[in-house]
Amino acid sequence: MFQDVTRLYKEEKDNVKVTLIESQKILPSFDYRLQSYAEKKLNERKNFKLLNAYVTEVLSNGVKLKDGTFLPCGLVVWSTGLAPREFTRRLDAKRNKQGQIVTDEYLRVISDKSLNSYAVGDCSSIQHNPLPCTAQVAERQGRYIAKSLNKEAKSGYVSKPFIFKSQGMLAYIGENKALSDLPEFKLKGLPSWLLWRSAYLTRLGSWRLRIQVPLDWFKSYMFGRDTSRF
């Protein structure tokens, strides 16, 4: 966002300031060395400030912090935790304190006595074994359900409990730098950014997208992003 504004409104670039407020450590699920690297790189940026604080109120002209400090601003971008959708809230199913549907180790809704209902992804939580609400978990659960149902329909196959093994985490921190927290190794900076880009391409569902997306990246790199559709 900062790069887009300074490119489109050069005369205002010295007036644009970004403050990132986080009540705890940024990227708490990453290795502490990668966290420190991210904090260091963010603090090195011009007109950028990383602030460890609690926001208690968002007003039309700024935000108020827990210690009473008022930060004036023209735009607030709020990133918060997940909340259940209206559809899942209306379901007659046992839920945890976060509003997620509770399942057993086979991803079956435990409040359904017939055990013919399943819940996967962010809307659910395995009893006694909660997992992070990430796309990686949801994708694995979806594959598990599809495989189990197909096998059970053909041969009476009895599924094994769902087991999640993390493949690691990737995060982009701007300016062609990223973090890679993988079981085998930790990586940061430009090499991690290249890995992040490559991993993203492998998750695209068709060759058309695998060709189109790199072309879009190249156009954005050469001419900047198209902000007319934001």
TrEMBL record:
Domain External alternative NADH-ubiquinone oxidoreductase-like C-terminal positions: 167-226
Ranges for domain FAD/NAD(P)-binding: 16-142
Signal sequence extent: none
An annotated GO cellular component: mitochondrion
Example of a GO MF term: NADH dehydrogenase activity
Keyword presence, NAD: yes
Lineage top rank: taxon: Eukaryota
Keywords, sorted A to Z: FAD, Flavoprotein, NAD, Oxidoreductase
Pfam family, one: Pyr_redox_2
SUPFAM superfamilies noted in UniProt: FAD/NAD(P)-binding domain
Family (UniProt): Belongs to the NADH dehydrogenase family.
Name used for this protein in its record: FAD/NAD(P)-binding domain-containing protein
Gene source species: Acrobeloides nanus
Lineage: Eukaryota, Metazoa, Ecdysozoa, Nematoda, Chromadorea
